Amino acid sequence: MAPATSLVVKNSADTVIDDKTKRVSVKTLVESPGLTSIPSNYSYASHPNASAASEPDDTIPIIDFSLLTSGDPHQRSKTIQDLDRACQEWGFFMLVNHGVSERLMKEVLEGCNEFFNLPMEEKMQFAGRDIWQPIRFGTGVDVKIEKFFFWRDFLKVIVHPQFHFPTNPKGFSEVAREYCKSTREVTTELLKGISKGLGLEESYIDKATDFDTGFQLFAVNLYPPCPQPELAIGIPAHTDHSLLTLLIENEIGGLQIQHNGKWFNVNPLPNSFLVNTGDHLEILSNGKYKSVSHRAVVNNKATRISIAVPHGPALDTAVGPAPELVDNENGRPAIYVPMKFKDYLERLLEGRPCNLDHVRAPVA
């Protein structure tokens, strides 16, 4: 395999996304003639998180949404127990029988593909680094401090509490609106079950996070084929800042999650959501649930598209551990201190890493 090079695409038809780095989109890079190796600034192989994935000792939990919303108290109680166990032991689960139509899931994936196939000048109107930009198109990594570039292009749209969306391709906005509304309804029911699993009242998380006005993002990642997939990374190891994230993909694998200290590939069931717990569910649960690291790897054969829809608290809401889950006298102090969700996210805007260490309570 040829070594990574310092290739710079100089085709006059290419559109530079980032003037500072003269960086083009990965899609443009891949479509340039004669590309046989990756530019050196995309090389991830020497990064400490670049360990290979292995087969898990167990299988990722499957939660049947229809049983969670069942009128049968026994079925619902059993599913809440399963949900609680999945959030504690894995931080990830596959959600089946969720009620979102297969047609809608396919249409939203097709719309994403059509968006990335738009002329570059049309996508460039959304280029930017400000995380509060309602519609944002970009490539690589989107923070100010960059050590290497990710092998992905992205579209990020703020869809709640106000819905924003590109007007092209035609019909994409309408499909996305329906999809985001559906995922929000599913997430609302999951949070009710999770509240019960934590021993709280059913509406606790809804009220504590002001979920009705909560922050919802529609985040699409496009991972074109990579000539040296063993050297590149789609997205490196990270946790989500949200409460819950619902993810689908176009049947091209690439998601890996960390479980019991090892990385392994996730192969979602057809027409399922892959759901993971985020930082703010770990905070609210006082560490009972874990926000688990995950990453995206790339391949040299097919383009992968994934759609992640993180659902978070309201931006001005400070989330802390539920008081019912704190017991100082019996050795269960509050592990985290509250921070407004907006402040948590703005660490990204400042180019600083943002993780749970920044809200960890000092040890007495």
Task: Kindly list the characteristics that best describe this protein.
alpha+beta; disordered N terminus; 364 residues; Jelly Rolls; eight-stranded mixed sheet; 14 strands; globular; four-stranded antiparallel sheet
Write down how many β-strands occur, each being a DSSP E stretch of 2 or more residues.
14
Number of domains in the coordinates? Answer: 1
- If you consult CATH, what is the topology? Jelly Rolls
How much of the sequence is in beta strands?
15-25%
Spatial strand arrangement across the major sheet: 1-2-10-7-12-5-4-3
Rounded mean pLDDT is 89
Assembly context of the chains: single chain
Give the structural class.
alpha+beta
What is the molecular shape?
Answer: globular
Distance between the ends: 53 Å
How does this model look, in words?
The chain has 364 residues and is an alpha+beta fold. The chain has one domain: Jelly Rolls (Sandwich). Helices cover 25% and strands 19% of the residues. The protein has 9 helices and 14 strands. It has an 8-stranded mixed sheet with strand order 1-2-10-7-12-5-4-3. α3 crosses α6 and α4 crosses α6. The N terminus is likely disordered.
What's the quick description here?
This protein has 364 residues and is α+β, with helices and mostly antiparallel strands. Helix content is 25%, strand content 19%. The protein has one domain: B-lactam Antibiotic, Isopenicillin N Synthase, Chain (Jelly Rolls).
